[in-house]
Amino acid sequence: MSLAVPGRWIRPDGPALLRGHWPLLPLAATVLFLLAPLPAGDATASGKVGPADAASLLLVLVCAVQALRGRVRALTPLGVAVLGAPAVGLAVATMTAGDPYAALPGFVRYLQVFVLVPAAVVLLVRDAAEFRLAAGCFVVLALVQGAVGVVQYATHTGASYQGEDVRAVGTFGPGDVMGMATVVAYGLIVATAAGLAPGLPRRLRRIAGACALVLVLPLVLSFSRGAWIATAGAAVLVMALSGIRRALKVVAALAAAGVVLVGGFGVGSEMVAERLTSITQVSSAPDQSVTDRYTMWAAAESMWRERPAVGVGLKGFPANRDGHASLGLSSGSDTAGAGQAYLRQPLLSPHNMYLLILSEQGLVGLVALVGGWAALLVAGVRRLAAGAGTAARDCGLIATGLFVWQLTDFLYADIGGPSTVLTGVIIGLAAWWALPSREAAGPLRGAGAVSGAATGAGSRGRAPGVAARP
């Protein structure tokens, strides 16, 4: 029996699709609710509960109800350890903080993003069809936010950049300039992986490839160096895992798109060239933002050396920053544009997730969190390289690409803002692929999962506790 997806696309049955996959509605809402704009005059949504966060809470509640009814997949001991270990490190960092009550909001946020949401995704996503539904939401979000960003650049209604309101930020506003860049990069990686997947219908691959090319423009107009670097790294890995011949075609298409956009139409050519050049000058001639970043990195390292085992406690970096940072640190970053007045935002994190974990949670937290991420990455890549889950190889490419993007971006950024909740979804998708259930060994289940994606057939009608995983 062939494991390939049928080449002919069959229109899914909408009502049947909804009935079969209704527990995934909160997951789709968690992603798509990020289309909602910030309230007028609200410079940042950091530290606030937004619509996507509320949807993620509903996702966790639905998962709990389904678990009580025996309608989720059973986690292996390794899965329990990888997904549950961060909770131990978070609890230790909270209890040993100088002010445990002040650290409590940080504990809740970290628990949401790195434990509860990933676990809910792993437990609720039952097969490849449902994985593809979740991944498709990322592309929809990216296309809409990217379109808003392009309009902002064209009409000079974006965030301020080099004295002009041309920076594409989507609906996230100038207080979260990484928000649009992040979600657009997610969509680009998903579309690239789907376009390269050998088992998907040709029509679907072509649509995915077109979406990937379209998303290059808003990503460029975000002027986010970290997002550019992370996207390039993740895309190269996805292309390498999908095959050299396919990779060369994608590289040629992306190069042609870049030449047309920047060279032919002159889209931000001078600003883009200057931004690209600045990447190579981060050591010899760093700008103020890079200098601030280096200073905060040094401060984070100093905090860790002071308390190497457990760190200064969750939410402890801002309170301890001035005692560890040098005089080279500026008072904040300037934000303006996109319908908001000028505001100077304080620098409250090191803009490096690994150093933030090290400074606030020490080695205990670093091993629990980063150790689990490393295990998921190695397991996911090995599964792809070994050719496991052939019928759902596109899911593996998507999960690995998104996870590598996130881990790379963590070198230049940390959690914060409305899009943070998507980090938990991505970790969950990566764990879904890297930690297959024992029931998924049979090839027929993998084939059924793929055919379900093409026909719209659900997987919820099977006996409780039995999951059709690739």
From TrEMBL:
GO terms for cellular component: membrane. It is a multi-pass membrane protein. It comes from the Bacteria. The keyword Transmembrane helix applies. Its main location: membrane. Residues 451-470 are annotated as: Disordered. Pfam families: Wzy_C. Residues 211-369 form the O-antigen ligase-related domain. It is found in: Membrane. Residues 451-463 have a biased composition (Low complexity). The chain crosses the membrane at residues 50-68, 75-95, 107-126, 133-154, 177-197, 204-221, 251-268, 353-377, 411-435. Keywords: Membrane, Transmembrane, Transmembrane helix. This is O-antigen ligase-related domain-containing protein.
